[in-house]
Amino acid sequence: MISVFLNYVDRANLSVGATDIRRELFLNDYQLGKLLSAFFWTYALCQLLGAAGWLVDRFHVGLVYATGFFLWSGATAITGVAHGFATILVLRLILGIGESVSYPVYSRILASNYPEHHRGFANALIDAGSKLGPAFGTLLGGLMMAQIGWRAFFLALGFGSFLWLAPWLAWMPRGAAAAGHTQQGGPGILAILRHRPAWCSFFGLFCSNYFWYFLITWLPPYLEMERGFPKTKMALFGSLAFLAISVSSAVSGWVSDQWIAGGGTPTRVRKTFAGLGLTLSTIILPVAVVRDENLAMALLMLACLSFGLYTSNLFAITQTLAGPSAAGKWTSLQNGVGNLAGVAAPWLTGFMVQETRHFYWAFVVAAAIALAGAALFVLGIREVKQVEFESPREHLIHRRDAERAEKDKRGRIKKSSVRAE
What we know:
This protein is mainly α. Helices cover 80% and strands 0% of the residues.
């Protein structure tokens, strides 16, 4: 939870300092959108190509994570002394490479060590950390940047994060559940891709991530640029929005586990939270058109509370579907597809703001895509239970046997027809 907290402070810090960086480096909105999305290019690609999942499943999960953490914290620190668009772009790409192993690591640890009726709360705590990170980063970062500038904040955050490595190396997971598997261990990527729930979870995460990354990258600039909030006021309301998701996620994760422990099926419980949460998140749309500042902020908080209902159960669904042997690879592929939204949301939002000079259509697109995500989780995934994997050889044998059976069936029907005539 602490590591994902730091992960998301690093991930969101550029948006907090966006207006200052744009002014100092003479960037337009389109260039700013490219910087905000650059992290996700490598973050998504490393997972989509299976590199992150392969590392997590092949080597010791704790050491893989320590290496990734060191890489992304260093990139954050060096950003504080960068003086050009291209340099910051490269550092954001390195940040994405380092952070790409994080969620495959989380899923493998939780799927290996936690039963179904504890995964909701365990995942919710990690998700709460991912929302507390932007909340803390937006509040403290906004206040610090207003006093000492964005560069000092990046340096303090990057070098300060290295302190986490000592307790992690001392207390990280050990034993067989943390050690690397052989190359033959667990189902392969093709075995995962043959299952419909995998594709639904991939694109469902893309839809929800579009909504989330719209918030994490453009909410602070929106509050400053369109609402006219000063930096300190933006920091307050921006952090409250992310804090609302965090609190909602933790409470919802605990409630979902209690429901399952009391006899509720994972299918009913997990899909209820996922579908209801994403559907109610569309309450964010009126924020773009309501003029009253207090009402707009109340609607924003309600939308964020609703989004927390969904996020608490997202990776609990993935870990149940994949099982311990496939959790790393499945999560890597899912995060790879899902975090393409991190490329799309900042870039597309920047383009729409650049062309229209306001945020209305950006809010419309975010709400519509969240609704599509609800449909994928509720209608696309029939049951939340571990899928049955086959090796490529077993799949070919079963396919051959099925083709033979179908051929024999057609032959019997043809003979029966001849006899009847």
